[in-house]
Design brief:
Blueprint lengths: L2 E4 L2 E4 H20 L6 H8 L3 H13 L3 E4 L2 E4 L2 H12 L2 H16 L2 E8 L2 E8 L14 E3 L3 H7 L5 H9 L13 H14 L2 E4 L6 E9 L5 E10 L5 H21 L21
Antiparallel strand pairs: 1-2, 3-4, 5-6, 5-10, 6-7, 8-9, 9-10
Helix pairs in contact: 1-2, 1-3, 2-3, 5-9
């Protein structure tokens, strides 16, 4: 470890690194306050020399933690990557399970947590209804994305390119087997995006119905879906209406816990009719 003589004392290079980090955080805190600032402004606000501020900003910019435009500095895209890493490391189930239990107790139906894995959706957790007749599933159950309300919610933020890629990899009969066409699937996913939920009947099994809504992560992308499943004979208009409201509120709660700004959610003012898939 390198050492230098400073003021009659031996100081290690590690101490200089710590000091440098502390100064960098001072600068970043000032940048994060709002308006982009110049080197001179940052030097004045942090009480550091302009030369020190400039050197630290150069290092931060190399790692895309800051950017410069017309001599003024802002926070860079590197922070978004760090946020995504943090988001991926969070235990989604830790936040979702209490909400799922509340949903099950409120609606008395099975609640499923699912994520997208490539072109399929995978159930990663569930809370089972206590009623004698109920939907039974298990973690690890998977099915193609276009089948059921859950998958269409997970597809609802697909770009056109992603949607086209998904369709190209499907076998010719995959959509028609569940009463869909490419145009109808796009419409259903768009409906889910606008309304904040999707409804499906008799797709996963022949005697069940489901309502699903998205969970958003810190980066604003859909990271999972919560789905409430019903035996079809209990899925009345009143049950559907109540479920949609309670479920959307539940997914907003989990999204907030994951760091998403739920004020960005813009739900349609109109009541979007259920999909009515056969």
């Amino acid at each position: 470890m390198k050492k230098r003589l400073v003021g009659g004392f031996i100081a290690s290079s590690d101490q200089y690194r710590v000091d440098g980090l502390a100064k960098a955080f001072l600068i970043l805190e000032e940048i994060a306050q709002g308006e982009n600032a110049s080197v001179d402004t940052l030097a004045q606000q942090t009480r550091l020399s302009a030369g020190v501020v400039k050197r630290i900003l150069i290092a931060l910019e190399q790692h895309e933690l800051t950017y410069t435009q017309n001599g003024r500095y802002g926070l860079g895209m590197g922070w978004l990557r760090l946020a995504q890493v943090r988001e991926a490391g969070l235990d989604l189930r830790r936040f979702a399970t209490p909400v799922m239990q509340h949903l099950r107790d409120r609606l008395e139906e099975t609640v499923i947590l699912a994520v997208r894995s490539g072109s399929r959706r995978v159930n990663i957790d569930y809370v089972e209804s206590k009623q004698p007749v109920r939907r039974i599933t298990q973690p690890g159950f998977e099915v193609a994305l276009h089948i059921g309300a859950t998958g269409r919610v997970l597809m609802s933020d697909f770009t056109d390119k992603a949607f086209d890629g998904y369709l190209q990899n499907l076998e010719g009969s995959a959509l028609t087997a569940v009463g869909l066409t490419p145009a109808r699937l796009r419409k259903e996913c768009r409906r889910a995006h606008l309304s904040g939920h999707a409804v499906a009947r008799r797709e996963i099994t022949t005697d069940t119905a489901a309502v699903s809504a998205p969970i958003y992560g810190m980066s604003g992308q859909i990271v999972a879906a919560l789905t409430v499943t019903f035996p079809e004979y209990r899925f009345t208009e009143d049950a559907e209406r109540i479920c949609i409201g309670v479920l959307i509120e539940a997914t907003r709660t989990v999204s907030l816990q994951l760091g998403y700004d739920v004020s960005l959610l813009e739900l349609s003012e109109e009541c979007v009719p259920p999909s009515g898939q056969a």
